Amino acid sequence: MENSPLNCPPMADSKKGMTYAASGVDIDAGDRMVGMIKHHMQRTYGPRVIDRHGGFAGLFRLDYAERLLRRNYRKPVLVSCTDGVGTKVKLAAEMGVYDTVGIDLVAMSVNDLIVTGAEPLFFLDYLAVNKLSPEQGTAMVKGVADGCVKAGAALLGGETAEMGDVYAPGEFDMAGFAVGVAEEDRMVDHQRVERGDVILGLASDGLHSNGYSLVRAIVKKKKLDLNKVYKELETDQPLGQVLLTPTRIYCRPVIRTLRNYRVKRVVNGMAHITGGGIVGNLNRALPDHLDARVNRKAWTIPPVFRFLQERGGVEQHEMDRVFNCGIGYCLLVRPAFADSVTQQLADAGETVYRLGTVVSGSGEVKMI
After folding, report:
1. CA-to-CA distance for 241 and 284, rounded, in angstroms?
2. CB atoms within 10 A of CB 211
3. Are residues 274 and 329 in contact, defined by beta-carbon separation less than 8 angstroms?
4. Do domains 21-186 and 190-367 have the same CATH topology?
5. How far is CA 145 from CA 36, 44, 103, 245, in A?
6. Taking the domains of the chain in order of start, what are their residue ranges?
7. Is the pLDDT of residue 107 over 60?
8. How far out from the chain centre does Cα 1 lie?
9. Is the separation of the CB atoms in 307 and 316 below 8 Å?
10. What is the phi/psi pair of residue 148, to 5°?
């Protein structure tokens, strides 16, 4: 059932018959939440969604025939990704902020999905809680819907599981998956990357959703106050709010740029920079006989990374392999089109850095 509590055997109290509520699962709360989230789901719908709210599955047209909105595929390939938010949810629970991590949840899947050149179609979520609060659950789904709107994907449904014997009071977890589509002959294939290709980096909005076990360890060990404004962060926001800044969603600018080249293949490879940093993700966009040479001085590192590095005494090598350090997405572009692609992405609101070039090598990323 769409965004409804997980079914499990009932239990009882000593005076009444056995009830689900006595076991810790509130069906009425789940039903209230289903009604409360309907609006948030529907604002993600486009003309390809068949709206049957309350059904057992979401329905989505791959093609549609409306004359003004026609989008048919000759050789469609479905692309899917799944992910979670990691231990960032523990920070969100501590701060009592539940909507921003929904954006993170969508971003972690759709930013992976577009690396292939695919257009996001729809998203489904899974929320697990100790005790269901319809208001808290609705805030989570609102965040997911916000992320779907940014990505241009429909939120077709999901599941909310109330499991008091699995999660401690106040704890929750989130997972989700996205499905997209690409034309087979227009998919981005890293085997097309060539020596001389220019590496463009798109700025991140901070930590995104990786490295939070280390972040939380630094906060705890150094007794940092999540509600305090630290001048080193160069913002009026308290530390906790800075750390909960949602993951940037790159879908619309990247897909729009790819579609502007209907004949030429100008983007040869792409990488979503997540856990593992630039070194551990950009290499996935390289064939075995090429390296990426990245200039460390090519971009501005946001203050939050320096703050955590200095407060935690974290070595630069560890920073490189844990955090995105200010670059959330990379494109490997043919040299003659690097300026054009840069301008299009900048016009779409992205901060673009020329990070380096592709050279002969063995499939590694060299930080220079």
Report:
1. 32
2. 26
3. no
4. no
5. 13, 6, 8, 16
6. 21-186, 190-367
7. yes
8. 25
9. no
10. -65, -40
pLDDT single digits (tens) 252-271: 999 999 999 988 999 999 99
State the Cα–Cα distance between residues 101 and 140, nearest whole angstrom.
Answer: 7
Which helix (H) or strand (E) is 50 found in, with range? strand 49-50
pLDDT surpassing 80 at residue 117: yes
CB atoms within 10 A of CB 299: 20
Sequence-ordered list of residues with C-beta below 8 angstroms from that of 50, at least 6 positions apart, any chain: 59, 60, 61
Helix, strand, or coil (residue 105): helix
Q: For strand 290-294 and strand 365-367, is the pairing parallel, antiparallel, or unpaired? A: parallel
Please count the helices (runs of H) and the strands (runs of E) in the chain.
Answer: 11, 12
Q: Are 287 and 338 in contact (CB under 8 A)?
A: no
Yes or no: domain 21-186 corresponds to CATH 3.30.1330.10: yes
48 neighbors 154 (Cβ within 8 angstroms): yes
Per-residue tokens: 152? 């241009």
17: its two tokens? 């018959």
pLDDT digits (tens, 9 = 90+) for 176-190: 999 999 999 999 999
Do residues 159 and 3 lie in contact, with contact meaning Cβ atoms separated by under 8 Å?
A: yes
CA angle 258, 264, 268 (to 5 degrees): 60
Let me know if 214 is exposed, middle or buried by CB neighbors in 10 A (0-12, 13-18, 19+): middle
Q: Which CATH architecture has domain 190-367?
A: Alpha-Beta Complex (3.90)
Residue 63 has pLDDT above 80, yes or no: no
Q: Which two tokens stand for residue 105?
A: 């949840």
The whole-angstrom separation of Cα 325 and Cα 304 is 9
Quote the tokens at residue 147. 């992320």
